[in-house]
């Protein structure tokens, strides 16, 4: 029975995308069908076959290994922040030490892969392959893969030349797609808090589902003559775009250690930004709860969001109790961010008496994305500095569509994984 509900849920999420489509007549149903089949096969392979599970578990173990290596740097500076298991003296590790400080190693590592050309090469050829198989425009496919490694604002920054030359409707598609990614360099933090195999399963599924959902919400017919890819970080790109691919504006390669220093500083800023956001959002949520409980002790932000999101959570194939709890996690994630929810799940989500296998899988997949209210502001800000007023105004007017796209992609990814994990 619950499997049937889960299947119904996936169909409902697609129906919502169709209902809110800006141009139903021009939806590329062939492409939608192809990507949906790939999605189902990939989810089945990664969750239903031992070799698939071994691949994602191996990748998760790889990120965990990187995190453990990063602890050596933390021990050198702050030995009382790391537990004896890793060579430190702390009785326990806090959220910043276990999840965020490892970013200081992982971000520079990915930037080095970009500097030497490995990451751009992978993005280029995987993007071309995705375009060939799915029938999607070349740059949209390229950008989907780019997001998987670089994150939303970084991928936008190195695509400035393309954003300036494309039609505004295609720019809107990229803005909507940008709601559904994560940055590869931050996956290590996620795997320290929730099951790594489902975190890494969510990443490719989110990319595929972003193609499906944006193709339905904002279908844009691209003529062959405009289906081209401008050089990423090309001559017309800004300094930040050039920096992202390891080059300076005059075309000369930036010295490696200068590049590495900038990368480390950027990683440090990212740690501070995440820390500040988590502290502020948790405190603001607690303040709102205190105010609401003055009127009724039951009235909290989580309960209100739980009521609003309950129908979508129930369609994941959960019982009523679990669906209401899941809905509260969903709502909290959308209002705050994924780190706030993951922080609540640390030490609990792997307990089978609290979260069965199906619940654990769909919850992890749903929260593994940047889809929240705050991300819309980041994306609008990124576009504002790169495109003209007409394009920026169109994106600003479609904040609702951006948020809807991010939510539907997360629901689709979680619902599809849920079909194969019980």
From TrEMBL:
The chain crosses the membrane at residues 6-22, 29-49, 69-87, 99-122, 171-190, 264-288, 300-320, 361-387, 399-421. GO terms for cellular component: plasma membrane. One of its GO terms (molecular function) is nucleoside transmembrane transporter activity. It comes from Levilactobacillus spicheri. Belongs to the concentrative nucleoside transporter (CNT) (TC 2.A.41) family. Residues 199-418 form the Concentrative nucleoside transporter C-terminal domain. The lineage of its organism: Bacteria, Bacillati, Bacillota, Bacilli, Lactobacillales. This is Nucleoside permease. Its main location: membrane. Keywords: Cell membrane, Membrane, Transmembrane, Transmembrane helix. It is found in: Cell membrane.
